[in-house]
Amino acid sequence: MVKAGIIGATGYTGAELVRILNRHPQVELVALTSRSYAGEDMAAVYPSLTGYTSLACEDLTPAAVLEMVEAVFIALPHGHAVPVAARALEKGVKVIDLGADLRFREAGTYEEWYKIAHADHDLAAHAVYGLPEIYRQAIRTAAVLANPGCYPTSVILGLAPLLKGGYINPATIIIDAKSGVSGAGREAKVTSLFVECNENINPYSVAGHRHTPEIEQELSLLVGAEVKVTFTPHLLPVSRGILSTMYATLSRPVDEEELRQVYREFYAGEPFIHLLPSGRWPHTRWVYGSNNCHINLMVDKRTGRVIVASAIDNLTKGASGQAVQNLNLMYGFPETLGLTAPGLCP
Q: In this predicted structure, what is the pLDDT of residue 45?
């Protein structure tokens, strides 16, 4: 059994971790930290967990948590994870950071987009980016892991086979992505109020969303050259889910069935990636509460473009489910352990 703790347990990703790890046969949760809910049972903060956890939230220092655990999930706002990860590394505690602090190979990129200084450039350069379908072997030996963002997960998984195979012109990539309101976190914001987002859809952070450089970093690594994309996120009036639709110009005429075979081969044996039958486009509710990613594509012969759509649950495959998938790899457990539940539908 791996003793694990969650620092920042009462946000949505922390609660999702508790939900998933409750059914994990090889993990024992021993510490949940929260300043806002210190002294309260986790099941009181999230009554859906009633009967599934008896742990209380504690205002523990990171140092105290690291004395109790073998693995730590950091679910803190950006700017707070680096000191915890560095201390954990010294103590031999494995780290999975669900924030943005360690996702960039070049810490200067983080500083440019997040507008704060990075405390440890060397740690950022050596953290493993935790997208299992691309970096599985590196994840197995990782001590410090950067869990990908939700939008980047959906986009990278959707485009990776085309980019690796050289089927599209990277300079033509346009990404139209939509997320449920839980992607904004649990903190009260005017834009997350029911009357603001219900019966509404709107773009936000146009040409400036902080996931843009993360997407560009990983797509560039797939191609072996710098890639810049047009990325526009939108807020959907739903609780959970991301749907990303990507457009790109084909580098040469190609038959749609050939591309479908490229995806089948690229994701052969992947337990959570599902290429849907031709004509069945991904729905967010089909992956709701699951660690699955549904993908489909179409070649538009009239324009010479390919259209790819991918759907994930932003809190599961886009955050906490992927974090548990990474933990499984880091400890040599079956990759699907604790994660095999299908989506909730209806």
A: 97
Q: Which entry of 57, 150, 197, 293 is annotated as an active-site residue? A: 150
Order of strands across the sheet with 94-97? 57-58, 27-33, 2-7, 71-74, 94-97, 144-146, 128-129
User: How far is the C-alpha of 286 from the C-alpha of 237, rounded, in Å?
Assistant: 17
Q: How many CB atoms lie under 10 A from the CB of residue 102? A: 29
CA–CA dist 164, 84 (Å, integer): 35
**Helical residues (DSSP H) of the chain, grouped into ranges:** 12-21, 42-45, 62-66, 81-91, 107-114, 121-126, 132-140, 150-164, 194-197, 212-223, 256-266, 321-330
Q: Do 218 and 279 fall within a single domain?
A: yes
Q: How far apart, in Å, are the Cα atoms of 177 and each of 116, 210, 211, 234, 277?
A: 26, 14, 11, 6, 22
Angle 180-284-164 from CA coordinates, rounded to 5°: 105
Tokens of 320: 């906490």
136 located within any domain: no
150 in active site = yes
Distance CA 171, CA 219 (A): 11
Is residue 52 predicted with pLDDT exceeding 90? yes
* CATH of residue 27: 3.40.50.720
Residue ending a domain, among 69, 93, 126, is 126
**Predicted pLDDT of residue 148:** 98
Q: Is the dihedral of CA 341, 344, 345, 346 positive or negative?
A: positive
Q: Model's pTM, two decimal places? A: 0.96
Residues 263, 160: Cα–Cα separation, whole Å = 9
